[in-house]
Amino acid sequence: MDIHADKILIMDFGSQTTQLIARRVREAQVYCEIHPFNMELEKIRDFGAKGIILSGGPACVLDEGAPSIDPEILDLGLPVLGICYGMQLMTHLLGGEVEKAAKREYGKAQLSIDSFQDLFHGLDGVKEGRGEQVWMSHGDKIKVPPPGFTGIAHSGNSPVAAMRHATAELYGVQFHPEVAHTPNGTEMLKNFLFRACGCKPTWTMKSFVASTVESLRQAVGSKNVVCALSGGVDSSVVAVLLHKAVGHQSTCIFVNNGLLRQGEAEEVQEIFRDTFEINLDYIDASDAFLSRLKGVVDPEQKRKIIGNLFIEIFEAEAKQIPGAEFLAQGTLYPDVIESVSFKGPSATIKTHHNVGGLPEVMNLRLIEPLRELFKDEVRKVGGELGLPHRLIQRHPFPGPGLAIRILGEVTVERLKILRQADTIVMEEMEASGLHDQVWQAFGVLLPVRTVGVMGDERTYDQVISIRIVESLDAMTADWARMPYEVLGQMSNRIINEVKGVNRVVYDISSKPPSTIEWE
User: Fold this and answer.
1) Model confidence over 54-66: pLDDT tens digits?
2) What is the pairing mode between strands 365-367 and 324-328?
């Protein structure tokens, strides 16, 4: 089965919810890719999509220099769905009229559906007069639809809130069907995918595993592969995928930099060496890393020291593996999107990962079996491969480890304090049943001391900040509104059980402007 046979091209105009469109399409088991709006016509033809979705965006089609597409795209005979800005652009290019709305429409709105065919097929359970809840976010509106188009829905502020062409499979919606605030938005997108585009639901993680295993076998042939195993979800899934594909032709190198979470080194060895019987080279380089970090407080210097030493150790170990020609890495689709985004290419991909720079240094060819996947899809692949739930649901952990969660110098004593505090945070997340509901939860050791009173004694000890965030892909994140009793239990345990800490604070910063990690 070709899992890419039926695919959708999403053209990005800079909307904050473009990735959500892709996720909804993937959830419908249809493969899709996001590309910038200025993708060349010939590349679009070569892509072989069954349909095209034009995303929303912050621009106004009436402004000079507003992002646009080659009008021929709308004449390829492919179904096209324009969302918000995408709908306005279709209208503008095809001879309709777009105008500034007298009143900006943002937030929940009631949609009156005029035709329960096409995009709104199956939604005729909506009672007359009640309307369909949707999420609007626009300052322009369609005054006159293009020739051949008719309105199929309206709202109080948008006389043409959805439209379709009489004969061609061209559609537009003024609202955002991809967001949760449009409850039936997924059904609308499915109508476009299955009814208009004729897609089949072939994109499943079971089919992905089968397809990827076969492609890895063909790519690797009789050569050997090196995999940098960190114990995180991405590298763990890559390791097991490789083992399934080429068996003992793959070797995982696990470098303990002394900056891991409590018990992590032991757990990784148990799972991969004992349970999966994967070739695993374990190097305990804790002393070397801590020695290089002595006296260092600058975050960027910490990262460079850790990254460079990792490459040095990894390269030396990999040279001991005969016939190694490939390096496997856990690059995910959000990293790929960021490198070709509407806002311009990022300087580098995955600068926070330890393996950055290795292919150039070692003259290895890079294998990235997860580069088409979002994080939630990677977790599903892990389930298909039989990885334990606690590992699949493990929160993201930075390549430099606890070094960037200790503000200031990294020492054995400070690592001990943070490990104990971080362990308590994770234990309470598990006990509360909230661990799998958030993106990340961890402790940070601050470079300040505060006055406290324990018993009859005055203390002058350290501060732990708890950071818990909700996110879909780490590109944006919001602080988690945790129950007070859970935060209270964490604070109480940390202060009572971790020697040297007398104060706990909770970080309520969102990304942007704050990053998820502190350094």
Assistant:
1) 999 989 998 888 9
2) parallel
Share of the chain above pLDDT 90, in %: 70
Asked if residue 276 has pLDDT above 60, the reply is: yes
Query: What single DSSP character describes residue 178?
Result: T
Do 7-196 and 405-506 have matching folds?
A: no
CATH of 405-506, one of 3.40.50.300, 3.40.50.850, 3.30.300.10, 3.40.50.2000: 3.30.300.10
CA-to-CA distance for 76 and 60, rounded, in angstroms? 25
Judge whether 199 counts as a catalytic residue. no
In CATH, what class is 7-196? Answer: alpha beta
Q: Are β-strands 97-113 and 250-256 bridged in parallel, bridged antiparallel, or unpaired?
A: unpaired
- Is the Cβ–Cβ distance between 276 and 254 less than 8 Å? no
Residues 6+ apart with CB under 8 A from 227: 235, 238, 239, 242, 250, 251, 252, 253, 327, 328
* C-alpha–C-alpha distance, residues 427 and 292, integer Å: 31
Q: What pLDDT score does 468 carry?
A: 98
Told to judge if 178 belongs to the known catalytic residues of this protein, a careful annotator would answer yes
Kindly write down the DSSP assignment for every residue of 44-98, as one continuous string: HHHHT-SEEEE---SS-TTSTT-----GGGGGSS--EEEETHHHHHHHHHTT-EE
Residue 97 catalytic?
A: no
Crossing angle for the helix pair 299-318 and 286-293, to the nearest 10 degrees: 150
Q: Which of 33, 105, 178, 519 is catalytic?
A: 178
Amino acid identity of residue 151, one-letter, is G
Residue type, 128: E
Query: CA–CA separation, 205 vs 432, rounded Å?
Result: 29
Of residues 506 and 19, more confidence is placed in 506
Marked catalytic residue, from 33, 35, 84, 517: 84
pLDDT of residue 104: 66
pLDDT one-digit tens code per residue, 279-334: 999 999 999 999 999 999 999 999 999 999 998 999 899 888 888 899 998 888 88
Structure tokens at 43: 């590349």
Please give the model's pTM, rounded to 2 decimal places. Answer: 0.84
Residue with tokens 């795209």: 73
Q: Give me the catalytic one of 154, 176, 243, 395.
A: 176
* SS3 category, 343: coil
What ranges do the domains of the chain cover? 7-196, 205-392, 405-506
> Which residues have CB under 8 Å from 472's CB, separation 6+?
19, 20, 23, 439
Residue type, 219: A
Residues 205-392: name the CATH superfamily: HUPs (3.40.50.620)
d(CA 404, CA 382): 27
pLDDT band at 456 (very low <50, low <70, confident <90, very high): low
